[in-house]
UniProtKB/TrEMBL annotation:
Protein name (database record): DNA damage induced apoptosis suppressor
Pfam (any one): Rep_fac-A_C
GO annotation (BP), single: negative regulation of intrinsic apoptotic signaling pathway in response to DNA damage
PANTHER family recorded: DNA DAMAGE-INDUCED APOPTOSIS SUPPRESSOR PROTEIN, DNA DAMAGE-INDUCIBLE APOPTOSIS SUPPRESSOR PROTEIN DDIAS
InterPro entries the record matches: DDIAS, NA-bd_OB-fold, Rep_factor-A_C
Gene name per UniProt: DDIAS
Replication factor A C-terminal domain boundaries: 10-107
Annotated GO CC locations: cytoplasm; nucleus
Amino acid sequence: MNRRRKFLLASVLALQNSSFIYPSCHKCLSRIIVVSKRSYCPKCGSAGESGNANYRYKLSLKVAESNKLYVITVFGSCLDTFFGLTATGLHRILKTNLDKVQKPISTYSNALSTKEKPKH
């Protein structure tokens, strides 16, 4: 892997992948496999509880500079400033909001099942 830093002034054309955070290993920062309430790192063999997983950013972009197209991927904590919080913090917010969105739907469905269902 090239460790030299390169700067590119370009326009973002598209996100390459809609999944921009991933659960990562505490030891080697690789993507971990989460099954039920356990997690496992295939790279270093580390295991743990999935609730304690750290998350990292991985943002893949298609960009254009003058007449050249590039696909770039930006990893890790350098994106904390861009998003305004860590990937783990963002994951918690997204998970909490998803839970809030799903609960009213089930409450509405329970209310319909106890009352007369609307006729269409």
